Amino acid sequence: MMQVDSERQEHYTSGFTVDRTPAQAYEAVLDVRGWWSQAVEGVTDRVGGVFDYHFQDIHRCRIRVTELTPGEKVVWHVEENYFDFTEDQAEWTGTDIVFDLRPADGGTEVRFTHVGLVPQHECYDVCSNAWGGYITGSLRSLIATGQGHPNPKDDGPAPDHQDAATTARAEHSPTADSASVERA
After folding, report:
1. 137-170, pLDDT tens digit by residue?
2. What would the CATH number be for the domain defined by 13-172?
């Protein structure tokens, strides 16, 4: 008898449908610098590749590419993580980030799941708001128009679609002055 993982339903999931082919959506997902951060360093387009993400001293992580199925799926594994706004700064460590791509109504359905990002985590509100901006805002725009809205390379302020994450982070940080916190 197969058991259903009821916790899996709690993992952060987001998605959208876009008027592009699965191959075009796949190529955009691989272009991490085009939708997440221009400061990403490392290999994002090969299984076994490792890349580092950072935004100021607010968030850093090291990610390994674990699965690439052209036009269908991209999976990353978070090897290391740090947040400056949580007690457990490594909440993402050991989690998986999954992009599922499926043909839908002449376009592509993009389904994003961060397996292990659950409501019980301290970072959930901030992280789900941030992912929402990057996935349904920046990645969707990159696929649809060829222009995403990633964090700038020089650690300037994050794009406007990250305002909700900035607000959530300020509310969770005991030392943050919400008027002075930059978007991330």
Report:
1. 999 999 999 999 999 987 666 666 666 566 665 6
2. 3.30.530.20
